[in-house]
């Protein structure tokens, strides 16, 4: 079949597939589901899902903080009237299950056969202001929870429908903001926090940043391509290939029902810069052959033969770098690794089908620069090669010093995460969350499952006393600023049956008194706080609380101390406990991060080792290839340690991705060296020739990769910022190592086995 006809058929087939991909991408949705970051398949996750089915999800809430006017307190009647009006408005909204506010908080009193709920605050009776404020400050659970200690702010807690999605969540938040404005609250006067708020902000920013990063990457890459090739087709064709691969990758994601989240949002940008490698190697080789006077057809055939092998291997190693992320138990990282790895392979397919087809159908380009001046890269690279070899001792010594310093600094890296890790410290959303940590109980939830021993119930006096002992430890030693449990319910009921007197807010002193109270509890069972803390059969209870977001390192220490306390002071024949909750699950990710990273890096290294062994059958050559690619990784780890950057979910992917991408150019280099050694007997001349042939593509692709990843530093998400910065630094150090250490190591170690290289030459000649 004539090549031009084959090219037309290829373009037709690829056009149909791309059309299907575009249709699929049109149905792609953005999503941020907090629950996706739980460790999939973990027994603690199964336990929490069953627990939340019984008691409700611990993060289905929104905190609304309202600040009193300057110079006034929250007990001003006018302010409380607005708070009460807002409380009633929110309670009437769809998807709001329950609202807890200072103006609807009541002190229940039982008189005769009736229950009277006496409000703590009376906005319509200004003369009771002093009395109300005194009662509030004496009542446990109000100050620091609903009212700030300095009486300058209040909190309204909105309990929402379970796992509320973004559209209804956004509608609820918009309605609340509109009502706040109508009530005269300026934006600086109120603060919102909770999963619903984070979900709304994260998805909106993902959409905006994806467009910004892609635009910046296209502009940057277009400029570099023009600078390199100085022809319109040298710019347009690579862009067409890579944008086509992005469409295919996103189309496949959509077809599999996967949404764009915080991790998969990186796929288009990452693929755009990573996918350029093959196209640049192909076009560089093609232009080089044309410059030597070879015909268009022969230039294309030579290019595909010589580049195909190296590009195939590099696509394989790069995709493996992403596929190793599938060892993660965190679903967004798993999806990101899977679909980016597939998309890298799709880019390779398009590079060797779509790109050759377009080059075949285009007229032979008129090179703007004559041949004798067209290979100025040879002169530059030749001087670099000589300079590197002349100063090889300095190169090795500096590399060794950097390596030693980096390993020492990398030992300072700590695994630590917080609930809003991916937001910078001055982000408005994070500042709102800090407001609740400063003035109220905090935003980090705490959950402890309470199961009485067989034969007992939650309302057993010994069970309640042990629960109270745990409560005391949690408030005094653990750091909970708010706590609620079955003990809270029993104390509240006892107070209600004793005239609502605060001194009666305590556990019964005898089983007989407790039995009388339990028989009366049915009067309160319809109250939401009862349903949320004790099951109807009283066979299980819940201890819940809130605290500041102390980070996973501190939380792990607190949890270890708590478990030790429970082992020492809790009688398991009376009460059994288990730590659970969303925050506990997020902390658990840290236990897997190091293992996942080591597993991913190990798979990467093993695969590269096998590839090099298959090419050269030499352990020495394997070390030669691995060293220049591991050195940049270790240097960047040192930078992380020196800068105090913590290892967390978003930054844990850096090393496996960086190694998979960085080794790409090395694979291209050694595959070209392998082909060169079939024709060149001298190892020195073969390395030099390979250096000149591959050097331009290595430098250009590295500049594009570094520049492309550098666009991510403009992200408002800390995780994305560090991915861009640290991978960019790794690749920058990688190209330096590629052009300095690699040739030195090849000449130093591989020259001792020349026979293995020279033997195939006579056979081919014969």
UniProtKB/TrEMBL annotation:
* GO cellular component assignments: plasma membrane
Q: Which parts of the chain span the membrane according to its record?
A: 210-229, 236-260, 266-287, 308-330, 336-362, 394-413, 593-616, 623-643, 649-670, 691-715, 721-750
Q: Which domain of life is it from?
A: Bacteria
Keyword Transmembrane helix in record: yes
User: Can the keyword Acyltransferase be found in this entry's annotation?
Assistant: no
Keyword tags: Cell membrane, Membrane, Transmembrane, Transmembrane helix
Q: Which InterPro entries match?
A: MMPL_dom, Mycobact_MmpL, SSD
Q: What is its main location?
A: membrane
| Domain SSD: residue ranges | 239-361
Cell compartments where the protein resides: Cell membrane
Database matches in Pfam families: MMPL (PF03176)
Topology of the protein relative to the lipid bilayer: Multi-pass membrane protein
Record's PANTHER family? MEMBRANE PROTEIN MJ1562-RELATED, MEMBRANE PROTEIN YDFJ
Protein name as annotated: SSD domain-containing protein
Q: Which organism is it from?
A: Hymenobacter fodinae
């Amino acid at each position: 079949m004539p090549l031009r006809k084959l090219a037309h058929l290829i373009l037709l087939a690829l056009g149909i597939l791309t059309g299907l991909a575009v249709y699929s991408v049109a149905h792609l949705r953005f999503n941020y589901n907090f629950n996706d970051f739980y460790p999939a398949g973990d027994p603690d996750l199964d336990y929490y899902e069953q627990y939340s089915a019984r008691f409700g999800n611990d993060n289905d809430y929104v905190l609304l903080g309202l600040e009193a006017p300057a110079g006034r307190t929250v007990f001003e009647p006018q302010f409380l009237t607005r708070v009460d009006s807002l409380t009633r408005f929110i309670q009437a909204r769809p998807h709001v299950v329950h609202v807890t506010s200072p103006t609807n908080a009541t002190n229940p009193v039982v008189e005769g056969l009736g229950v009277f709920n006496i409000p703590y605050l009376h906005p319509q009776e200004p003369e009771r202001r002093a009395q109300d404020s005194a009662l509030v400050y004496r009542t446990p659970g109000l100050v620091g929870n609903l009212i700030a200690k300095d009486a300058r702010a209040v909190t309204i807690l909105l309990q929402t429908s379970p796992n509320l999605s973004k559209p209804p969540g956004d509608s609820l938040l918009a309605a609340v903001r509109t009502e706040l404005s109508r009530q005269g609250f300026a934006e600086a006067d109120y603060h919102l926090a909770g999963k619903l708020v984070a979900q709304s902000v994260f998805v909106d920013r993902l959409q905006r940043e994806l467009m910004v990063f892609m635009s910046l990457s296209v502009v940057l890459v277009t400029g570099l391509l023009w600078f390199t090739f100085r022809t319109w087709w040298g710019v347009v064709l690579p862009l067409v290939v890579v944008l086509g691969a992005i469409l295919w990758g996103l189309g496949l994601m959509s077809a599999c029902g996967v949404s764009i989240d915080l991790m998969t949002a990186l796929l288009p940008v990452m693929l755009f810069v990573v996918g350029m490698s093959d196209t640049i190697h192909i076009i560089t080789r093609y232009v080089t052959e044309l410059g030597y006077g070879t015909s268009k057809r022969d230039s294309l055939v030579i290019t595909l033969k010589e580049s195909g092998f190296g590009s195939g291997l590099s696509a394989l190693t790069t995709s493996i770098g992403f596929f190793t992320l599938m060892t993660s138990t965190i679903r967004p990282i798993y999806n990101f690794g899977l679909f980016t790895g597939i998309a890298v392979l799709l880019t390779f397919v398009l590079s060797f089908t779509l790109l050759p087809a377009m080059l075949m159908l285009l007229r032979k380009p008129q090179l703007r620069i004559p041949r004798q001046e067209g290979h100025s890269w040879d002169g530059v690279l030749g001087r670099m090669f000589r300079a590197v070899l002349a100063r090889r001792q300095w190169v090795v010594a500096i590399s060794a010093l950097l390596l030693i310093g980096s390993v020492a600094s990398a030992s300072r890296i700590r695994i630590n995460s917080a609930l809003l890790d991916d937001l910078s410290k001055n982000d408005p959303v994070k500042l709102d969350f800090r407001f609740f940590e400063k003035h109220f109980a905090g935003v980090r939830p705490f959950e402890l499952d309470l199961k009485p021993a067989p034969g007992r119930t939650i309302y057993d006096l010994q069970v309640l006393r042990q629960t109270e002992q745990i409560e005391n430890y949690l408030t005094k030693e653990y750091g909970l600023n708010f706590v609620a449990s079955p003990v809270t319910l029993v104390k509240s009921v006892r107070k209600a049956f004793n005239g609502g007197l605060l001194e009666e807010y305590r556990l019964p002193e005898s089983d007989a008194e407790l039995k009388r109270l339990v028989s009366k509890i049915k009067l309160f069972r319809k109250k939401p706080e009862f349903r949320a803390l004790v099951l109807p059969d009283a066979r299980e209870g819940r201890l819940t609380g809130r605290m500041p977001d102390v980070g996973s390192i501190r939380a792990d220490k607190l949890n270890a101390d708590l478990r030790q306390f429970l082992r020492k002071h809790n009688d398991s024949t009376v009460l059994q406990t288990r730590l659970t909750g969303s925050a506990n699950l997020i902390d658990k990710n840290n236990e897997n991060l190091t293992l996942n990273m080591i597993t991913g890096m190990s798979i990467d290294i093993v695969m590269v080792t096998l590839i090099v062994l298959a090419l050269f059958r030499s352990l020495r050559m394997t070390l030669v290839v691995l060293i220049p690619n591991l050195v940049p990784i270790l240097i960047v780890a040192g930078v992380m340690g020196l800068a105090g950057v913590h290892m967390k979910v978003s930054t844990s992917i850096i090393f496996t991705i960086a190694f998979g991408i960085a080794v790409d150019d090395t694979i291209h280099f050694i595959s070209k060296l392998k082909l060169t050694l079939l024709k060149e007997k001298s190892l020195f001349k073969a390395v030099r020739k390979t250096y000149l042939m591959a050097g331009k593509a290595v430098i250009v692709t590295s500049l594009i990769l570094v520049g492309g990843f550098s666009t991510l530093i403009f992200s408002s998400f800390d995780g994305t910022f560090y991915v861009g910065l640290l991978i960019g630094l790794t690749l920058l150090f990688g190209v330096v190592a590629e052009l300095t250490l690699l040739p030195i190591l090849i000449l130093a170690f591989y020259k001792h086995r020349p026979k293995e290289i020279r033997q195939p030459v006579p056979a081919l000649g014969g």
